[in-house]
Amino acid sequence: MNIKIHKTNFSDVVAFCDKELVGKVLEDKGIKIRLSKIFYDGKDVDEKTAIEILKNANTTNIFGEKSIKVALKAGIIDKNNIKKIQGVPYAISVSF
Prior knowledge:
The chain is α+β, with helices and mostly antiparallel strands. It has helices at 37-40, 47-55, 65-74; strands spanning 2-7, 12-17, 25-28, 31-34, 43-44, 59-63, 83-85, 88-94. The protein has one domain: uncharacterized conserved protein from methanopyrus kandleri domain like (uncharacterized conserved protein from methanopyrus kandleri fold like), CATH 3.30.1860. The strands form two sheets. It has a six-stranded mixed sheet with strand order 5-1-2-6-8-7, with helices on one face. A two-stranded antiparallel sheet has the order 3-4.
C-alpha cells in the first residue's frame, strides 16, 4: 500500500492506495478517476504504520481492496460509505 501526505494551509490530505493501482485510470458510467503518481505515489507502508497515519488525518482519499480494509480497521470509514468504480472500492474520509 502507498501512502502520501499532502500538507495544505488548512489540513493534511492523505492519499492511500493499493500499490498496483497507482498510475491507473478508472472509468465507469461517465466518471473518470486518475490515480496519478503525483498524488498517490508515496511511501510503501505496513498496516500498523498506515493505521497510525490514517487515524491522525483530516482528509483521506482511499482506493483499492487492501487500503479499504486497513481504513475500515482504523475506523476512519464505514462500510456503507464505500463506493466502486470499475470494480475498485474507494472512499473519502473527512474529519475535523
